[in-house]
Design a protein that fits this description.
Blueprint: E1 39-46, H1 55-75, E2 79-86, H2 91-103, E3 110-115, H3 119-124, H4 131-134, H5 149-152, E4 156-157, E5 160-161, E6 163-165, E7 171-176, H6 177-182, H7 194-204, E8 211-214, H8 223-236, E9 242-243, E10 248-250, H9 254-269, H10 283-292, E11 296-302, H11 303-309, H12 322-325, E12 326-329, E13 331-332, E14 345-349, E15 352-356, H13 363-373, H14 376-383, H15 393-398, H16 403-412, E16 416-418, H17 425-440, H18 445-460, E17 465-466
Parallel strand pairs: 1-2, 1-3, 8-11, 10-17, 14-16
Antiparallel strand pairs: 3-15, 4-5, 6-15, 7-11, 7-12, 9-10, 13-14
Length: 467
């Protein structure tokens, strides 16, 4: 049955293993519980389309996943037809379409292109369910042992796994080793506290034409401010923006004050960073250019900077000597042991994955397809020619990852954290960005924290804030 979602169809699911076909009002073709299945049709949805958006994903699904899975099931005596429902929509439009499909009991059996930050929102709306509630054997998948617990959190909510993460990333401090050497700093640098970061910036401040440090701030940089700036610093104070156990958002806490004080030290009190960059529409791209042109000593960014921004052939900020002069280090907590869970170092990660449609008529068969798509063999096929960080450690070990990306997989993913996948998060993120913008433009950290508290109360309600 074609999806009723406006704009484009996400699912064309006509399968049956236990329940009626997804979104169908006629379940006369559905087998009874326990009835052996010998023929079925499943559908995979992805926000990918051959020749368009995420083309490599569409090609992998159509040219490898579908024929390989169909052949595998044929050997088991099951005639399975897998259909691909690709889209090239804007991410938010795709999200809306998925929500409409799932709300009406329709959609594909396996849904990919699912941003991890949507997980909590969809779970709270009962659009998706924990994997082990859809198929009881999901927790026994061999792949879970290969996916670090921290990475599993990207597709989890309140302790339950709702999907399988496909790939992820991590944030680190990048630094220019040549500038460090000129400033008398070690080329093999790893700060263990915020004070050590500030000490390095103070030494870099002695170099002519060099801005010591860039930590994203302000609303023009959008989510980059939250992910590359505020949230990793907050994790370094021992706090997270949302407490899942208590179901409370963090208000103007002492930990938030610590973060805003750090911004104030960098951009106002000691002028170690450039506050104007935080106010420019192109500020983030300009910081990339400054780094590539040896005018910026340190910046916190994701592995996106390394693999897409400062590559020698980049259209954004090409850096011919990237491999010779760029170093990286983990983001330290305020002081050793002060991070969330007593960690010495922290990071933030994003990424997405795939979920099962709880309305699928073939829970077991749909799970087999989902887990097959995330098997070691499948992910090696998907990323073999374009090595990227995957969710599976055994795949990352075999991929030809360069030194920096290997560092993310080995050192950063085990210590990383994820944003809360809740409906209110985007507005909370903007409030955080506004608080940093207030500080870099001269508002005291205490007043900026109060402004944030007021904004947060308007977003989530005072009863949902940890005061």
């Amino acid at each position: 049955m074609r999806s009723r979602a406006g704009g484009f169809a996400v699912g064309l699911s006509t399968a049956a293993l236990v329940l009626a076909a997804c979104g169908s009002d006629d379940d006369s073709d559905a087998p009874a519980d326990g009835e052996e299945v010998t023929e079925a049709t499943l559908t995979i949805a992805e926000n990918a389309i051959r020749g368009g958006k995420n083309a490599e994903v569409a090609e992998w699904v159509e040219d490898w996943v579908i024929p390989e899975f169909e052949e595998m099931k044929a050997e088991d005596g099951v005639d399975v037809t897998v259909e691909f429902d690709g889209s090239g929509a804007d991410d938010e439009d795709y999200k809306t379409s998925l929500a409409l499909d799932l709300q009406t009991g329709e959609g594909a059996d396996v849904i990919g292109g699912f941003d991890g930050i949507w997980t909590g929102e969809f779970a709270q709306a009962d659009y998706i369910q924990p994997l082990n509630e859809i198929y009881s054997g999901a927790d026994d998948w061999e792949g879970w042992d290969q996916v670090p617990e921290a990475v599993q959190q990207n597709m989890s909510f309140e302790g339950d796994r709702y999907g399988i993460p496909v790939g992820t990333d991590g944030r680190v401090i990048y630094y220019n080793t040549e500038l460090f050497a000129e400033a008398g700093l070690p080329e093999d640098w790893q700060p263990t506290s915020w004070e050590e970061i500030l000490d390095a910036a103070r030494q870099l401040q002695e170099l002519d034409g060099v801005t010591p440090i860039q930590i994203n701030a302000g609303t023009p940089m959008g989510e980059a401010t939250t992910m590359q700036g505020f949230l990793p610093l907050l994790a370094g104070t021992g706090a997270e923006i949302y407490d899942e156990d208590a179901s409370l958002w963090m208000g103007a806490s002492p930990e938030m004050q610590q973060v805003l004080d750090f911004y104030n030290t960098i951009y106002v009190e000691e002028e170690l960073g450039d506050p104007l960059l935080q106010q420019e529409a192109a500020g983030r791209d300009n910081s990339f250019l400054m780094f590539s042109e040896h005018e910026l000593g340190m910046l916190i960014e994701g592995d996106y900077l390394w693999r897409s921004v400062i590559t020698p052939d980049s259209d954004i900020a090409p850096m011919e000597d990237r491999d010779e002069v760029v170093g990286w280090a983990k983001i330290p907590a305020v002081e050793p042991g002060a991070g969330v869970g007593g960690q010495d170092f922290v990071s933030m990660s994003g990424g997405g994955g795939q979920v099962l449609n709880p309305n699928t008529d073939y829970p077991e068969l749909a799970w087999e397809l989902l887990s097959f798509m995330n098997s070691k063999e499948a992910l090696l096929e998907r990323y073999g020619d374009d090595p990227r960080i995957t969710s599976r450690a055994d795949v990352n070990e075999e991929l030809d990852l360069d030194e920096m990306i290997r560092y993310i997989t080995d050192e950063v993913l085990p210590i990383t954290f994820y944003r809360p996948g809740l409906e209110e998060y985007p507005e909370v993120s903007i409030a955080l960005q506004e608080s940093t913008e207030a500080v870099v433009t001269g508002t005291s950290p205490a007043d900026a924290a109060e402004q944030y508290q007021s904004s947060l109360e308007g977003i989530v309600g005072d009863e949902n804030i940890a005061n």
